[in-house]
Amino acid sequence: MINEYLAVLIFFVVALGFTIGGLVTAFLVRNSKPGYEKETTYECGEEPVGGAWIQFNMRYYFFAILFVIFDVEVIFLFPWAVVYKELLSNFGIFAFLEMALFLGILILGLVYAWKKGHLKWE
Amino acid sequence: MDFSFISDSIVTYGVFLLFAVVAVASAFLVVSVRSVMHSALFLAVFLLSVAAFFFIFDADFLGIVQILLYVGGVIVLILFAVMLTARVSSSLLQQTNEQKYSALIVCALLFIMLSYSILISGLQGFENTLLPGGTAKSVGWLLMTVYVLPFEVASIVLLAALIGAMAIVGKKDE
């Protein structure tokens, strides 16, 4: 089995080596000359205001959970799509209706959130 | 001890051992580092090594699901939840209390119990069988025929999560 994923494993090892190698080489050859400009988060960008670990707005959580819910939905689409042709020849239109019902229930929730104004950002 | 159920190939066995060490180390760090934020990030490392186990044991569909859903989705959700806590910026947030020694004893007992029962079971039913057409096909077929009712109920569970999130965020009406 591992032979099928040997390419992925080699890619993983090379990517890891590339990252660590770059950092180690930079650590070995650079000279240390820290300054105020260099220690800012974005050397050539906006001046950051405050810390990054702040308390987030509750609204972000809703969008995160919305993302996870539709993430799960997409994952269920994959095994369905793989066997769709076989299902169609065995069960006819029910192969489509099974997934339509699944999507329909979730889209109902999305429409409800939309109607309630939860998707609006103000 | 016979570990041939993992793999006959020494390479696979080595890869399994590598990810096993990563999984145990990151799981330990999740409960031992000071910052909740770092705990959440080590949890991502742990879930990625579990995904590697799925690939090693030929469950490639589950491996992809693990990466997409747990590392891509659930970790994002946990990070948001951590960000929502008021004391996230304080690095001195205690993660342990005075019960940590009794917790260690309970963990050790659980470990002994689980490893004993796994080893005496002889791991029956763990034959290394490759499913025809990969796991995605078999999962899809079972999901759409035998387990179609749980599959539809899963969408209701997701709908409940969506409505629950709306209730947490607060009432909003035009």
The major beta sheet of chain A can be summarized as: none
Q: Major sheet of chain B: size, sense and barrel closure?
A: none
Oligomer: heterodimer
Count of strand segments of chain A: 0
DSSP helix fraction of chain A: 55-70%
Our Rg estimate of chain B from Cα atoms comes to 20 Å
Level-2 CATH architecture of the domain at 1-89 in chain B: Up-down Bundle
Largest interface: A-B, 50 and 56 residues
Overall form of chain A: flat
Beta-strand residue percentage of chain B: under 5%
Run of helices and strands of chain B: HHHHHH
Low-confidence stretches of chain B: none
Q: What's the number of extended β-strand segments of chain B? A: 0
Give the overall pLDDT of chain A as a whole number. 84
Overall structural class of chain B, as computed from helix and strand content, comes to: mainly alpha
For the residues shown, what is the average pLDDT of chain B? 81
Distance between the termini of chain A: 51 Å
CATH domain class of the domain at 1-89 in chain B: Mainly Alpha
Class from helix and strand fractions of chain A: mainly alpha
- The radius of gyration computed from the alpha-carbon positions of chain A, rounded to a whole number of angstroms, is 25 Å
